[in-house]
Amino acid sequence: MLTAGVVAPAIADPDGAGGGSGSSTPSAADVRAAKERAADARTDVDGIQERLAAADDALDAASVRAAKAAEAWNGARWEAQQARVRERTATAASARADKALRAQKAAYRDVLITTNGAGTDLAAANAILAADDMQALLEETATKDRVDDLLDQQRAEYDAAAGAAAKAEESATAAADEAEQALAKARTARDAAQAEADAAAATARRVGRQKVRLVATLARLQGVSVAVAQRRQEALESETRRARAAATPDPEPRPDPQPQPADDGPAPDPAPADPEPADPAPADPPAPSGGAQAAIAFARAQLGEPYQWGAAGPGSWDCSGLTSKAWAAGGKSLPHYSVAQYDVSTPISAGQLRPGDLVFWGDNGSPSSIYHVALYVGGGRIIHAPRTGRPVTEESMYYWRTPDFYARP
């Protein structure tokens, strides 16, 4: 923890105690008071840093809620799209069944007209009466039987066509109802995502203002400039992220992070650098395939573009929108939904990662809880659209905490 570094000034004892009249030697009371002020300052620094950590936690929680809502919207929208596809398929099947039924109606009508309409029973009776011998009678009777068989077959085909048409119409109606319900769910999810995005943006603004005030107070207590205090705070937050990542078990073992020097109080100003921890990367992977290279190149071309929930370019992105379009450039179609992207990809371990693979974060051990996805680019780094207020960026895949799932498109 960074300390205040406060030095108590020497105060003359107006009563001359401990050093004679006019002596500059502090009394025991002065020393105690100075130590108390230093302790108070240290306590103040610790308290401010706790408040800064709490502010970051609040922002993190709001961002996660917004990410979950955004991916729930993507999921609901994707399901609505699938429901529409099923509706169109069912409607087309119903139309084909209706056409087949109309053809069977016409065929059955023609057979009835040709047989019953022409007086089949009367013709059969006349044939029996006019038969010259038994052989002729049998031939005439067989003809009638064949006609009756034809009628029975035609009736069976008509009944089958009518049943298929009814079933197809029922399926089409059910698919239409399902699509409407999916659309209603998507609209609800869209509204929830917008509300969470607005809440996260408001939290980000509030936390930003709060951190500016707290860092300024921290600088005053530590006796340094605001810029120095800000750099120290960023380094402390980076170390906190490292500790959180180290506390989360990896799906596959990875080397321990390089040890960091102990904090013995105020340190020289760190050189401006990437505040993200230099986490070790998985073993050097093979060179990416042409599709993976194209996906990475596309993602890199979007660096700096803003995050917008539900967006898949051009100019703004959410996490699954970016990975979807990146891999589209690489020749593979991925849904605009992180859970579905995992489902249609091949699960791998952290140790199998190679450039172009997908890295996922979820709530628990189930892939259905996934709510964030990034594109792995090698060297332990990812490109992703993080959240509202943070543009598309390339950074350590341990920037926040260890990912939960990995997959290869």
Automatic annotation (TrEMBL):
Residue spans of biased composition, Basic and acidic residues class: 32-42
Organism superkingdom: Bacteria
Sequence segments annotated as region (Disordered): 1-42, 235-292
Domain spans labelled NlpC/P60: 289-409
Record keywords, A-Z: Coiled coil, Hydrolase, Protease, Thiol protease
Segments crossing the lipid bilayer: none
Coiled-coil ranges (or none): 151-203
Stored InterPro entries: NLP_P60_dom, Papain-like_cys_pep_sf, PG_Endopeptidase_C40
Start-end of Pro residues biased regions: 267-288
Matching PROSITE patterns: NLPC_P60 (PS51935)
Similarity field: Belongs to the peptidase C40 family.
The protein's name in its UniProt record: NlpC/P60 domain-containing protein
Protein species of origin: Nocardioides aromaticivorans
